[in-house]
Design brief:
7 strands; 2 domains; Pnp Oxidase, Chain A; alpha+beta; 21% helix; single chain; globular
């Protein structure tokens, strides 16, 4: 059984008499390889959330989006996704240079369904997968430590909406976001913008 709990988790589990439940759930749902069901779910999504830590252990959480399939399951221990043009802050990718530990939350609001994934990530600006993604700046590869489907009872059900026009696509010019046209921003944009 993977040991995913630390003293803080255990103290609260003991206070609320849920240690046995937590251990049972660990036995039943937590695994360290990506199953066919996990792969199908992950690759069907057009977004996920990723948490990273900077060198001082301060967290940040980012939304990552693209067309369905932009998250690739490469094998039963590895996923990858592209880094597209953003706001130039590189909070997620920059944090990975200081601390490779990540937590990902995949959610389908249509089903509803969610999956948690924990692992270690690297950023590569020369990854061969760059050829698979229009306008990608780098590829993030994540080695899975553990993952599990998680109770979705509090996820509100939504209808699928139109994809973002800002997702890079082959043969279509990607529009610049409005905020990049502000005079106070234009003067500091990278030269290739």
């Amino acid at each position: 059984m993977p040991d995913i709990y630390h003293e803080g988790n255990r103290d609260l589990q003991d206070e609320f008499d849920s240690r046995r439940l937590a251990d049972r759930l660990t036995e039943l749902i937590i695994h360290d390889t990506i199953t066919d069901e996990d792969k199908e779910f992950i690759e069907s999504l057009n977004m996920f959330f990723i948490s990273t830590l900077d060198g001082d252990g301060r967290p940040t959480v980012s939304y990552k989006g693209g067309d369905p399939g932009f998250i690739k399951v490469l094998d039963d221990k590895t996923i990858a996704y592209p880094g597209y043009d953003g706001n130039g802050m590189y909070l997620t990718a920059g944090n990975l240079a200081a601390n490779e530990d990540v937590g990902l939350l995949f959610i389908s609001f249509e089903s509803p369904q969610r999956l948690r994934l924990h692992g270690r990530a690297t950023v590569d600006t020369n990854d061969p997968l760059l050829e698979d993604y229009v306008e990608a700046k780098y590829i993030v590869r994540i080695q899975v430590r553990n993952l599990f489907m998680n109770c979705a009872r509090y996820i509100p059900q939504h209808q699928e909406s139109e994809p973002s026009e800002y997702v890079p696509r082959e043969g279509i010019e990607t529009p610049a976001p409005e905020w990049k046209s502000y005079d106070i921003i234009k003067e500091v944009l990278p030269e290739d913008k």
